[in-house]
Amino acid sequence: MKLPLVNMSVYIPKCNCLDALMSSLTSAVMLVLILTLALMPPPVFAQADGHIRFITHSLHPFSYQQNDQLTGFSVELVKGMAQIRGMQANIELLPFNRAFQNLKTQPQTALFVIAKRPERENDMKWVGPIITSGVYFYQKRNSGLTLKELTDLKRVSKIGVVQGNADHTYLETNEFSNLSTDKSQIQSLKMLNHGRVDVAPMSELVMPFLAKAANIDVNTIEKTPIKLYDSTLYIAFSNDTNDETVAQWQHAFDQLKASGHYQTLYQRYFASQVQ
Predict the structure, then answer these.
(1) With contact defined as beta carbons under 8 Å apart, do 37 and 44 qualify?
(2) Max CA separation in the chain (angstroms)
(3) Where are the beta strands (DSSP E) in 98-215?
(4) Cα 149 to chain center, whole Å?
(5) pTM summary value
(6) Helix crossing, 243-258 with 73-84: angle to 10°?
(7) Residues of the chain whose pLDDT is less than 50?
């Protein structure tokens, strides 16, 4: 008797175990990679120069408003340095004390121009030097005061200084208690001209420009023989600014000097502006 054939084949589903395993491993690796990148500190270039906030204060002829535009020797210097670096510098004008506080408390901030003094040196990072000038005390001509030494100034009624600047700090440290503070040097000069203060310290380079800006006859103000110190001005960057960024701005400044553009600006502002 012929028995019917029975189909004994068993359906065995195709196994994708290897594919599933590879897929799982790939997902796991990607997850680890994503988590690793998320936890890594940002690279140096994350502190882009575009995030540097440039601030300045009113000080003729370095930075001042003219026809609603911010201009001046140091303003043009910073803009020229930014151009070398292929970027723009947006500059904000503030009273000096407020600008200085911003420099000390706000990240990624640069302030110009500011004197590099021993008490400040380690609190910020420096680019420059921009310029050096002697700081002398000035008095109203024919005021009747006989002043020869720094200690003589302790007997005058009032000394006009800018709130928070290097002159203010120096005199306060040396226990001068007769200080009258203003927001800017041009205000100190006006106070001197009106007889509200007896003397005021100013850069001998800057004083004629301040007098012109304040419509004060420069011949009515005279320089005393009392020199406070030599003041060297810089651009100061907040301490959190990356060292490489500061070095790049220093390099741009050096290039500006090497190209002759610095001297061109110097001649424009200091050799011909005040006749």
Answers:
(1) no
(2) 148
(3) 109-115, 124-140, 159-162, 179-182, 199-203
(4) 33
(5) 0.76
(6) 110
(7) 1-6, 8-13, 15, 17-18, 21, 25, 29, 32-33, 37-38, 40-48, 273-275
